[in-house]
Structure formats: C-alpha cells, structure tokens
Amino acid sequence: MAVVCYFFLEWMVKNKSYFNAGIDNALMVLVLVFSGGIILSYFQDIPWILFTGLIMLVALWLCLRFADAFMAIISCGFFLAFTFLFYLKSGIAAVEYFPFVMILIIGILYFFTEKVKKRIKFIYEKCLMALTVFLLLAFYAAGNYWVINQLQSSVIDVPGAIHPGWVFWIFTFLMPLLYIFYGVIKKSLLHLRTGLFLVAFAVFTYRYYYTFLPLESMMLVGGLVLVATSYFFIKWLQPSRYGYSSENTFSRPAWSNAEGLVIGATMGGLSKTADNHLMDGGSGGGGGASGEF
Predict the structure, then answer these.
(1) Which of 156, 171, 192, 273 could form a disulfide with 143 if both were Cys (CB 3.0 to 4.6 A apart)?
(2) Residue 43 region, left (φ>0) first, then alpha (ψ -120 to 50), else beta?
(3) What's the CA gap between 292 and 192, in Å, rounded?
(4) Sequence-separated (6 or more) residues with CB below 8 Å from residue 18
(5) Which letter, b or e, does each residue of 189-198 get, where b requires 16 or more Cβ atoms within 10 Å of its Cβ?
(6) Contact indicator for 57, 79 with CB cutoff of 8 Å
(7) What pTM was estimated for this model as a whole?
(8) pLDDT tens digits, 119-167
(9) HSE-up of residue 211 (Cα within 13 Å, Cβ side)
C-alpha cells in the first residue's frame, strides 16, 4: 500500500500537475502511515530511536520531492524526537539537563532556517514558513515548565517539581513577550501572532499549578482585558502609526470581484438610473416633495 500510494502520488503530480490539491497531501500522509505500519509490524522489537529516524527520513524525502509544508513539520518533529531519544542514551541522570540541550538544538535549527530563506528556491517558501512557526513553538515548549514537568515525570517516573524551576518559570512567561516585542520591532506578523498565542499557553501553565480565582471568573476577566486591549489599539491605530494601522492595507487581487461579475451576468445584468431623474419626486423618488412617498 505504501508503494501503491507513492506511485499514484508521483503520477498525479507529474501528469495532472497536482499541488496542495488535497489528494496529493492525503497520499503523502498514507505513504507515511503505511511505511510506519510496515516498520512497527515487521520489526516488532525495533527501538523507538530507529523508528523515529526512519520516519524522519521518509517525511524529509516527501518534503523535498513535493515541497509539502506539512511533511516539513513532520520531519522536523521526528528529528527532535530522535534527538531526545538519542540524548536519553547518556543516562537517566542527564534528563535534568535535556531542556537546555533541546533549546540549543532548536535555536540552531531556527538560525539555519532563517539563513536559508533568502537563498533557497521559492518553491520551498511555504515549507520554510511552516518550519519557522513550528520551531518557534518548539523552542518555547522546550523551556515551558508544564511541558518539561510532564516529560520528566514520564521518563524517570518521578512526579514532582523540576530543578531549577525558577529558570523555567521565567522562560515560560518571558519568551511570549520577547516574541511579541521582536514582531513589533521587525514588523513580523508571524512572530507577533505566535507570541500572542503563547501568552495564552503561559497563562494555562500558571493556572495548571496555581489558582487565585475560579475558572469562570478568570475567563471573564481575561475576556474583558482582551476586548479592552483590542478596542484601544483599533482606536489608536486608526491613523497609521509607526508603520502600523488597523485598516486593511493589502491590495485586492484582480480576481476578487469575479463572483460579483458572474452573479451580475447570470441575474440579468446591472441596471443604472439616469442622473437627471434622481430627484424628480413621486413615490419616494423626491423624498415626498410631490406629496407622495
């Protein structure tokens, strides 16, 4: 089934020019699923580190061959899993330091991705954009207190606080703010939106361990803060400030009015009233000037 799916994938892309049409994406996922099924069913005692490495290579090939952004994320995700499992080979005592190692590795990958963006062919532009978002999220997850606590508890089976906890609490709340600050300075919506999303995750992390208000009260207060903040910035950015504006400044594509043109053509065309008959009165035309509305 893996070979059959890959054969049809090659045929549809080469002969039918399919690209992100849905069918080709589904076939890529099936190739990955069936390949993983072969490995797990035939080699039942295969180490997980070898399994993640093989799936990483398959996803990497699909990404390079068909310029698929989802396969780029899958390949990078399995690479990080492979790195984590390989690091665990050094012993359980080293688990305490694995967040710092993962932060370093993800930081190097992000730096390499940013350098490659200007040199690589444009067909991989979406792959690099998706990879950038994934690495930003993975970089934050590698230092998030809740994520580290869950991984540490599952690996060494000793639930409890992690050390040094204060470092990861600072990381948990500081990184979303740094993403937002970088996005504002560089005018990067990608970093800005990622930072705003991670603010919510930081609040969830704190709420998981500590509470000072009932859940419904926190949701109400959070909603009021978001509405007030949004209203303030919409009003403040009505005139453009520092290159930012609340208005949509993107140019409309040439085909944006195609639907209106088709509807107008199929419904009998557009009618236009002569300018010299606009204020003649009668039946509301003159606003009641002739005594009739």
Answers:
(1) 171
(2) beta
(3) 58
(4) 12, 24
(5) eebbebbeeb
(6) no
(7) 0.74
(8) 776 788 888 999 999 999 999 998 888 888 887 777 666 555 566 777 8
(9) 8
